[in-house]
Amino acid sequence: MDRRTFLKTSVAAATVGVVAKPYIARAQSGPIRVGLLAPLTGVVAAGGREMVDGFNMYFEEHGGELAGRKVEVIVEDDAANPDTALQKARRLVEQANVHMLAGNLLANTGLAVANYVKGNGMPYFIPIIAADDLTQRSRIKNVIRVAGYTASQFSRPLADWALKQGYKKVATVSQDYTFGHEQCGGFAQYFTENGGQVVAQYWHPLNTSDFSPYLGQLANSGADVVFAMETGADATRLMQQYASFGLKGQIPLIGAMNMTDQSVIRTMGDEVEGVIVAAHFSEGSSAPETQGFVSSYQKKFNKLPSLYGFSMYSGAMWIDEALKNIKGNAEDREAFIASVMKTDLAGSPLGQTVKLDSFGNPIYDVHIRKVVKNRDGKYWNRPIDVYNSVSQFWKYDPATYMKQPPYSRDFQGIKKS
Amino acid sequence: MSTSSSAPASSTPARDGLGKVALIAIAVGVLAFAVLPLLVPTYQVSILTEILIFAVLAMAVDILAGYTGRTPLCHGAIFGVATYVVVYWSQQGGAPVTGLLLGVAAATLVGAIFGLLAIRTSGVYFLLLTLALGMIVWGVCLRWTSVTGGENGLRGSVRPEMLAGHMPFYYAVFAVVGLITFIMWRFVRSPFGLTLRGIRDSESRMRALGYNVSLHLFLAFTISGFFAGLAGALYAMFNDFVSPSTVALSQSVEGLLMAITGGIGTLFGAFIGAAAIIGLENFVSQYTERWPTVLGLMFILIMIFAPQGVIGRVRDLVRRR
Amino acid sequence: MSGLNAFQLLNGLTFAALLFIVASGFTLIFGLLRIVNLAHGALYLLGGYLGYAAASATGSFLVGVLAAMAGVAVCGLILDRGLLRFVRGYELRQVLLTLGVAFVLNDMTLVIFGGDTYTVPTPDFLKGAVRFWGLFYPKYRLFVLALGVVVFIALWVLLNKTRLGALIRAGVDDPEIIAAMGINIRKVFLLTFMLGAALAGLGGAVGGAFLTLYPSADSEILVFSLAVVIIGGRGSLVGAAVGALIVGMLNTIGQVMFPEFAYFVIFGPMAAILAFRPLGLFGKAA
């Protein structure tokens, strides 16, 4: 980690962490302005707050600077609403004259902003937005998933792992939107191409308060493993109701990483224990970089970091490293984007060296991780297995892969046996 | 407490002719909208564009709320239907002009269907029924993933090349909205519009006079839907994007609030309402992320102190002197 | 498949029981005061958070429930005395004012409690599931079902066997009569408003234990309550019960059988009823 810039000035740190203030356009040589879009109100406000915390934490630890220039992070609330996200992105670009945009949590807000920057070439970094096609079929050159991942990327190694445990029949339950279709699709395609069988798929609307109708069907589906893709409050409810309906002891529950993210499990009890998911990060990993980050985050915010906190932190680090390679010249967008694509990120909380594929999506050593209690009696995710160098295309040839339709409710890549 | 005894849905009827003060006010308003974009930074131009578009939505709401005495909570949905159709059409590679026509037609149709169901009710029930109808549209947009793109919505490229910049687009919208406003003004002053006011003030009397009240209400609803559709189509060009939040209840609520803020039954008040709400939202969100609280407080204060809207309030104050 | 059907039936019933608890408060206020309280969902969520805070602090579910009811009843008092008094008599202004209150309340709960998902802790004897008729069913949901029945009986007794109830019923049918009888109708109105709010609080605490608490839970429960009251009819207890059963069942059926049109399955019938029977199945003209 570069410590030269650290402690340079404590005044600079004061500019960080200020939520949106009126903007004054500055000369090109002034600070680097970063527009951070995060949902600070609405359904996912807690995650949005952690995005801001994680992002700012990086700059606070690094003297409030990006590659030696002062950084000014301008936070805008996207309200988890694509229309608002679009309006705020416009304001950041056209009024606050930012050098880059970063953030957004929900795929719909990210897609709206991506559609906007497609027209104007503004660099836009999306550590949280996982929509497959943004780094595949409809790739936009200036939209890069630094420290992020593609929705279907981690469910393939998980499917492989599940097959190795001897599971043959899976039932999936998932939120009915693209993020869910993609994660389930990755799992279903790999699972069925390698001898498994999908016995049932249930799609429910976001914010389903009552899972009992689906749990009733799951219990009778004949599955020997359940793959669940849930985020936020849905994840809490699914795991809780899964346990209270007595399914927990009966059918093992595995799923997408969002389900056992700290943002979900930190308010939960034993019903989360033993749930297994695949991810690029485990807060319970023994890697020293990870543990260093986890303990300082815990000291600062009094909680274990979630996906939102550590992804934005790592994303900020990625941007920093890339800008250092071009001496902080954020005004030269072409060079900036090229440098981000070339930068390999080492020493980040991810605990591994990560590089981008030619589509702007990182290649990871993917953890199979399990929810266990840590020394303090809190639940966290500990890796139990690892798959090295997993790309968003798995082992498929990218060109061939992208010829198949995007995953949707109707296309899950399921191989008929 | 306000001195006026009028509920938002039945303020004093607007005078038929335009007074001198009103004419000056309109001239100033038109001039402001014509000149302002030349003076402000480009981002503000997009805000002005939005104000014009939402003013049309608020005027469409006003046709029902102000001139028939029926306050709807579904216009965001009707507006959004047009947006959806236009963006969908563009995404499928159709010509933008056809898309715009189809979008407005779809919104008009939805307005007509809602009208058929809703005209039998009035007051709070009308509000609730239109709310429920709007929820259905929202539910369909959210769940009919194969067509609407579900939660993620649809992206298109509706705006033609020559209107790509903020300025040309603004003036195009300015011209269109000016035309629409003129048509709406003629509409509410037409014999048909006068009959609607008669219905608002006393349904039974109009019925006794031999008017077909149901038919008038149905047509008013459909026409209001048509204008909301126009606004929605413009919004599609503005954003090139649509998602369920465009048809959500909050959109209907904001449209209604704009109409109320400007003054129900004043038509042109919609511009003041739209400017106030959108301007305030942009201003407030630079300082705090508690916009929902500010919006809520505004709702509360307006309901208590100025239910007849800003224009109505000013008119009352002027008269009292 | 019969097990599955009985299971889904129970799911619909238990959800209906919660809906009834929340919607009965809504319908009382709507019926007597003519106020469509769009802040009812926000009161539900507030009750849930209060219940969560109190139950976590004391370790007692009962204390949580009581705190939620009391806290939200006080909120109702403030709402009625502090704000609604300024717009008495104007139906639409009241509705829109409560909508504003809902915005403010929700945003404030977000500030105070953050956006994390909370679950009201339940007592140990309600944890786990019981086995009967070959079904494996959570005890807590059965408790909610029983509670719904208890609330129905309690409200029925209150409305039909007490003086206050007689006044409320008279007020629903004709507000002028009791005013003419020389009774302080304001006091009756206020008590009803607080009772209705307390029921929202009760719903929040009870619902928060199995449906969890999160931003936007308020608008979901509000929309369901609206559907219940519109179907059942303003001010009718039986209507609220029947409406809750219909909506609860339709919700389950919709999710299981017509996932794409789940909302349509609930709001379609509601719109139809409103259009053709504007006062609902059990509503009476004022």
UniProtKB/TrEMBL annotation, chain A:
- Any Pfam family matching the protein: Peripla_BP_6
Is Transcription there in the keyword field? Answer: no
Q: Does the keyword Transport apply?
A: yes
Q: Where is the Leucine-binding protein domain?
A: 31-373
Which InterPro entries does the UniProt record give? BCAA_transport, Leu-bd, Peripla_BP_I, TAT_signal
Sorted keywords for this record are: Amino-acid transport, Signal, Transport
* A single BP term in Gene Ontology: amino acid transport
Which Gene3D superfamilies does this chain map to? 3.40.50.2300
Give the residues annotated as coiled coil: none
Family as reported in the entry's similarity comment: Belongs to the leucine-binding protein family.
- What protein name is recorded for this chain? ABC transporter substrate-binding protein
Give the species this sequence originates from: Azorhizobium oxalatiphilum
TrEMBL record, chain B:
Q: Which organism is it from?
A: Azorhizobium oxalatiphilum
- Primary location recorded for the protein, binned into one broad class: membrane
Query: Membrane-spanning residues where?
Result: 21-40, 46-65, 72-91, 97-117, 124-145, 169-188, 209-236, 256-280, 292-311
**What membrane topology is annotated for this entry?**
Multi-pass membrane protein
Q: Give a yes or no for keyword NAD in this entry.
A: no
- Protein's UniProt name: Branched-chain amino acid ABC transporter permease
What does UniProt give as GO cellular component?
plasma membrane
Q: Which UniProt keywords apply?
A: Cell membrane, Membrane, Transmembrane, Transmembrane helix
The molecular function GO annotations come to: branched-chain amino acid transmembrane transporter activity
Pfam families found in the cross-reference section: BPD_transp_2
Subcellular compartments:
Cell membrane
Q: Record's InterPro entries?
A: ABC_transp_permease, LivM-like
The organism's taxonomy opens as: Bacteria, Pseudomonadati, Pseudomonadota, Alphaproteobacteria, Hyphomicrobiales
TrEMBL record, chain C:
Residues annotated as transmembrane: 12-33, 61-83, 95-120, 140-159, 188-215, 221-249, 261-280
Keywords associated with the record: Amino-acid transport, Cell membrane, Membrane, Transmembrane, Transmembrane helix, Transport
Gene Ontology annotations for the cellular component aspect, listed alphabetically: plasma membrane
Question: Member of which family?
Answer: Belongs to the binding-protein-dependent transport system permease family. LivHM subfamily.
Name used for this protein in its record = Branched-chain amino acid ABC transporter permease
PANTHER family to which the protein is assigned, alphabetical: ABC TRANSPORTER ATP-BINDING PROTEIN, BRANCHED-CHAIN AMINO ACID TRANSPORT SYSTEM PERMEASE PROTEIN LIVH
Q: Quote the InterPro entries the UniProt record gives.
A: ABC_transp_permease, BCAA_transport_permease
Query: Where located?
Result: Cell membrane
Q: Which organism is it from?
A: Azorhizobium oxalatiphilum
Q: How does it sit in the membrane?
A: Multi-pass membrane protein
Q: Which domain of life is it from?
A: Bacteria
Which Pfam families does the record associate with it? Answer: BPD_transp_2 (PF02653)
- Any single biological process term in GO: amino acid transport
Could you give a GO molecular-function term held by this entry? transmembrane transporter activity
